[in-house]
Specification:
Elements: E1 7-10, E2 13-16, H1 19-34, E3 39-43, E4 53-59, E5 64-66, E6 80-86, E7 89-93, E8 108-110, E9 116-118, H2 121-136, E10 149-152, E11 160-162, E12 169-174, E13 191-202, E14 213-215, E15 221-223, H3 226-243, E16 250-255, E17 261-274, E18 278-285, E19 288-294, E20 297-311
Antiparallel strand pairs: 1-2, 3-7, 4-6, 5-19, 8-9, 10-13, 11-13, 12-13, 14-15, 16-20, 17-20, 18-19
Helix pairs in contact: 1-2, 1-3, 2-3
Length: 312
Amino acid sequence: MAVRAPLYNNSGNLQEMTTTMVSEIVDQIVYQYSTDPSVALSVVSSGGSLAAINDTRLQAGAMSTSTTAFPTEATTAEPSEVTVSYDKVSSANASVTPTTDTGKTWPVYYTSGGNIQAMSLQDVKDTFLHPAIDLLTAATTTTQQAGTYTVHTANTLAGATIVHADPIFVDTRADTSAYTAGGIGETLDQPTTITNYYLFKVDGSDTSYTSPMYIRSDNDLQEYTESGFEDLCKEWIRKTAADSVDGYAISYNIGTTGSGVTRGSGMADTILTGGSGNYQTRFVNADDYRAQEFPDGTPSTANTYFLRIHKS
């Protein structure tokens, strides 16, 4: 590993950057990534590339009828489980062809012998790009994770922008208040929404930094222009995130388990459990006796799904 101290122009003198100054460049690289992430999540109607996750709930059993007496509880259908699958998140990696390292492309530093030399691409990875990926793939969601994604239970989130107005997961349960004896035969599936979960992209912050020096084609030293250095760094952080061969590529997964760190709210699938069905009867007339079992029980969490970010 070769972490370098790039040189900068300090009032006409070449001076090595401090670790704080290097960190400021890393923060700027994170911001550049946020302006055009190369690993982008989107919300689709169905068929997303990330794993499907399931919302489960109870529905009423089918109505039983008799012309002579109420059907017994033992002969009346029990509540059953409804499963709704959500596969609404897709991930896409951009194809990035960054500027080729010519040997004079990157900032310069002092060698151990006191000579001035351009950083190699590996030096740049160790000094700037890989630390930026480490920040981007952390569990927190500050501006140092800008351009990556998180999940929230409301459609607004400070410091982030919603990806799509539609939720990526909806936790529902049977609406027990919707079932009445007087309504037998009730519609079997009568859900109520418990929680919506939305996908957000973390916002960036255009931070200040000191431009380093590089070697021009005529071998003179020059300070990078702001746009020139930022464009160069943007190309390479996008390349690194999309298809690093050094273990620093970014990916996402959704599930109860998975590689990486969790982002934002866990998406809970809750269901009524512990009940054996709320047996109810309805007398319509002398030839129409009805019975039906409604969902009952207490709310319980069947599964909790997480969005995770991973580097590999």
